[in-house]
Write a structure and sequence with these properties.
With 479 residues, the chain is mostly helical. It has 20 helices and four strands. A hairpin with a 5-residue loop joins strand 1 and strand 2. It is globular, with a radius of gyration of 21 Å.
Length: 479
């Protein structure tokens, strides 16, 4: 089977098997796992192919696809996170509706990672918004329905900006291909950026994310933070690689997002909100060095999914209460491994990803990204120093350990991707950063109780923030 034939088969498979879950309701989890494993095989083919694959389906105004190693890293992330979520839910009696939406979400996220035209991207992002909305509201509680509707409203408004920008690109070039952005008017690029920045949870326009990710059910939080937000940042990274003029804008938002997210996270006392703010921060790391963003996205997807699945099984969300309540040692070990990885500790892929990102920064980015790395070490010291005991019985199901084996094993295995990182200088720097972060946590942040205002996160202000971002972008592109 050629790469082109397998690509078409792989695109159609989630649609076919997703709806088959209704015909074979007891096979929903197996079908979903089959889709994820197929994506795993496809992602490896993308990573090891000699040259990028391009496809034009239907006609010149149809669907344009481009598959390269950047696509491969993002698809691999989607495959591993989806498989881990299936393992986690294996014994939780999820309905056929849950697995159908998971498969549709998986397929539409994959579509974003290979499309190369604005209309295909728009359609895929809209499908992602609907599938994510249904999964967030899955428990049917009043709270979950409100959070889901809030997400859907913000997502649809963002995509309206994107669609207006796409229309202006077509008006200028009579094409929706990504390459048409080269001749696009500045207002079109600003509109498209507002849509993608909001969808991807970037900078202040992404402040809808902490509430949505922290209030969703545990496996849904893992999917949202592990892969869904990456559907917004993948096109930004792609644009940065294609156009020199766009690259500095993407890098600027990368640094700003990394600092904004970590600035909130170091003061946060709620475990899931802290993880959500760190999702914002880590997405900034992906965009700060777009040429190596694929590897960082893979590392972040694995570690953040693991952390959300672990946080959902802690006895409390409140970090103050957790300091006085030992957790099962086995759960703490998994939590510590994930926390070490995201802090950049050697022997885990977070180390290689951070070293690779730092080596590809521009000089003006270095100070900001090092401050963000220090903030990451401070934040995850909260988890590493939690009390734990082998005498506390763990209530987690075996599916949890299947998911942890896949995600944490992936962090160890992916460590070999950039083995050149293991030089004395590269090892000493993150160790010093982590040590300073632990000191800062133990002597300063552990003792302070500052609650940052949530005014900007309120629903009333999210659209206003989006409008301010649009004005800011107009200023940037016209400067």
């Amino acid at each position: 089977m050629t790469m082109n034939t397998f690509t078409i088969f792989w695109i159609a498979l989630p649609l076919f098997l997703g709806f088959s879950s209704y015909l074979f309701p007891r096979s929903g989890r197996i079908l979903t796992l089959g889709v994820a494993l197929t994506s795993l095989v496809y992602s490896l083919m993308c990573l090891f192919q000699e040259a990028p694959t391009t496809l034009q389906l239907v006609d010149n105004f149809g669907v344009s696809l481009m598959i390269d190693d950047l696509s491969g890293f993002f698809i691999l992330t989607n495959a591993l996170v989806t498989a881990a979520v299936v393992f986690y839910c294996w014994q939780l009696n999820k309905s056929k509706f849950f697995y159908t939406q998971t498969v549709i979400l998986h397929g539409s996220v994959n579509a974003v990672f290979i499309c190369a035209d604005l209309i295909s991207l728009y359609v895929a992002l809209e499908v992602i918004g609907i599938a994510a909305f249904l999964l967030i509201a899955y428990t049917r509680s009043d709270r979950s329905i409100w959070v889901a509707l809030r997400y859907l409203f913000v997502s649809n408004t963002a995509m309206l900006f994107f669609l207006l920008g796409a229309a202006l690109v077509y008006q200028q070039s009579q094409s929706f291909a990504f390459t048409a952005l080269a001749n696009a008017p500045m207002d079109a690029i600003a509109l498209i950026f507002v849509g993608l920045l909001t969808k991807g949870g970037i900078f202040v326009s992404g402040l809808w994310l902490p509430l949505t990710h922290s209030e969703s059910e545990t496996p849904v939080s893992a999917m949202l933070s592990g892969v869904v937000v990456k559907s917004g940042i993948y096109p930004l990274a792609r644009f940065a690689l294609m156009f020199e003029d766009i690259d500095p804008i993407v890098r600027f938002f990368g640094v700003g997002t990394a600092l904004l997210g970590v600035g909130y996270a170091v003061f946060e006392k709620d475990t899931k909100r802290m993880l959500a703010f760190h999702t914002v921060s880590q997405l900034g790391f992906v965009l700060a060095a777009p040429e190596v963003g694929g590897f960082y996205a893979l590392t972040h997807g694995l570690v953040k999914s693991a952390l959300f699945l672990i946080a959902g099984n802690l006895p409390s969300r409140n970090l103050k209460e957790l300091r006085h309540q030992p957790i099962p040692r086995a759960v703490w070990v998994a939590l510590a491994i994930a926390s070490f990885s995201i802090s950049g500790f050697p022997l885990l892929s977070g180390f290689g990803a951070k070293v690779l990102t730092m080596k590809n920064l521009l000089p003006w980015q270095v100070i900001g990204m090092n401050v963000a790395a220090l903030g990451t070490a401070i934040s995850f010291a909260k988890f590493i120093f939690l009390p734990h005991s082998s005498e506390v019985q763990s209530s987690v199901k075996s599916g949890f350990w299947g998911a942890m084996t896949l995600l944490l094993g992936g962090l160890v295995f992916a460590n070999v991707v950039y083995y050149e990182a293991y030089t004395l200088g590269n090892i000493v720097k993150p160790l010093v950063t982590i040590f300073l972060g632990w000191l800062a946590y133990w002597f300063i942040f552990r003792r302070v109780a500052i609650k940052l205002p949530r005014v900007v996160e309120q629903f009333d202000h999210l659209i206003g923030v989006m409008s301010l971002m649009l004005m800011f972008l107009f200023g940037m592109v016209l400067a």
